[in-house]
Amino acid sequence: MSGRAHLMWDQAVTAYDFGPEHPMDPVRLALTMRLVEELGIDKAVDVDVVAAPAAGESTLRLVHRQDYIDAVRQASAAPESADPSYGLGTMDDPAFAGMHEASALIAGQSVAAAEAVWEGRAAHAVNFAGGLHHAMPGSASGFCVYNDAALAVARLLELGVERVAYVDVDVHHGDGVQAVFWDDPRVLTVSVHEHPSTLFPQTGWPEETGGDAAEGHSVNVALPAGTGDAGWLRAFHSVVPELLRAWRPQVLVSQHGADTHAEDPLAHLAVSLDAQRAVMETCHALAHECADGRWLSLGGGGYAVVDVVPRSWAHLCAIASGRPVPPTTELPEDWRAEALRRTGQQAPYRMTDGREAGWSDWEAGYDPGSPLDRAVRAARRAVFPAHGLLP
User: What kind and span of H or E run contains 116?
Assistant: First the structure.
């Protein structure tokens, strides 16, 4: 296996643009890549910046129905004709010219990254433009048109991979990926997210554990609104490492939506950049421990487009490159000026929120009075026995 990292990037992914009033502003992608360049992450010896072609129809059909692909193509060519029965032309997913092409291009980056990791051309690969985990086989949902995360996993299975772990730490439940692999015992999906009673898509309850053929292969850790660093990290470390060590995936795919952050305008967790970075580091370590180093990491949600997203995903790229950026690193002045010019917002000064990313291990004890601990215990009880683990 190569020790190289592939950083998937094509400037054309910024054409994935729902319009000026939509929270998913493609400037977050452009500013992330600019920060990666300013920090020299892309120039590291073992990093290749790779632009892959758009996913073709045969690839898209690994997850999506043909009638839905046709509907996306039609809406892409004539946005006014978008069919809301396919989730297109809605408030969340407005149709725009070129929607099919931009969505297929993002999907193509994730699929190519998965191929490179499995075939040994790269140890790690990052597509921070990806992670569009809400799209369903037959409909758009939650700002997501094609589910690049599910397509990457499906391509791995097509290549002969027998065990894939998908770990999703976006603030929203990874419902589309869970739905696609609900009955597939070759895939373990783990989602750590805000509780469905307080956040879209109102799924991801601990009782959602997989279909009859894959019982215990859908794992949901539903956290109380307001959960901060210590609770978020405690929940992650109380569930994910044990499951991955038991499952022993051949490839780890992780989704790192930055919308868990306290400053994100669309959710209610209180996580810092430093905790996000800590989970990225843990996913990297778990890939080496459990999956022979094969790691594909994706972006996802994140709507604090200057304060949070570029810093978070630049850390992800740096960690995947094997050369993490110290949290105390100052943000380059040229980048801060570019962010101000493009958004009118003042950018932070450092690659940290100044927080210590600490937590208490599950073995330290269970507090029945803690809503966080009850959420963790519900997830463990729901799925751990299916993997031979004590809840």
Answer: helix 99-118
pLDDT tens by residue, 217-255: 999 999 999 999 999 999 999 999 999 999 999 999 999
- The rounded distance, in Å, linking the Cα atoms of 291 and 302 is 27
Instruction: Pick out the chain residues at pLDDT < 70.
Output: 1-3
CA angle 174, 125, 154 (to 5 degrees): 50
Choosing from 124, 134, 172, 237, the catalytic residue is 134
pLDDT for residue 130: 98
Query: What integer pLDDT is reported at residue 1 of this predicted model?
Result: 54
Dihedral angle, C-alpha 328, 334, 335, 338, nearest 10 °? 150
Secondary structure class of 223 (helix, strand, coil): strand
Pairing of strands 164-168, 124-127: unpaired
Three-class SS state of 220: strand
Whole-prediction pTM value?
0.97
Q: Which residues does residue 49 pair with via DSSP β-bridges, in sequence order?
A: 7
Told to judge if 6 belongs to the known catalytic residues of this protein, a careful annotator would answer: no
Q: How far is the C-alpha of 205 from the C-alpha of 223, rounded, in Å? A: 10
Measured at the CA of 91, the angle between CA 87 and CA 96, to 5 degrees, comes to 75
Contact, 3 vs 123, CB < 8 A? yes
Can you read off the two tokens belonging to residue 185?
């015992």
CA angle centred on 367, ends 364 and 370, rounded to 5°: 130
Q: 364 in helix, strand or coil?
A: helix
Q: How far apart are CA 253 and CA 140, in angstroms?
A: 22
How many CB atoms within 10 Å of residue 365? 8
CB 123 within 8 A of CB 251: no
Query: Can you say how many angstroms the Cα of residue 129 is from the centroid of all Cα atoms in its chain?
Result: 9
What domains are there in the chain, each with its CATH number?
Answer: 5-387 (3.40.800.20)
Both tokens of 72, joined, read 């996306």
pLDDT attached to residue 96: 98
Between CA 243 and CA 247 the distance in angstroms is: 6
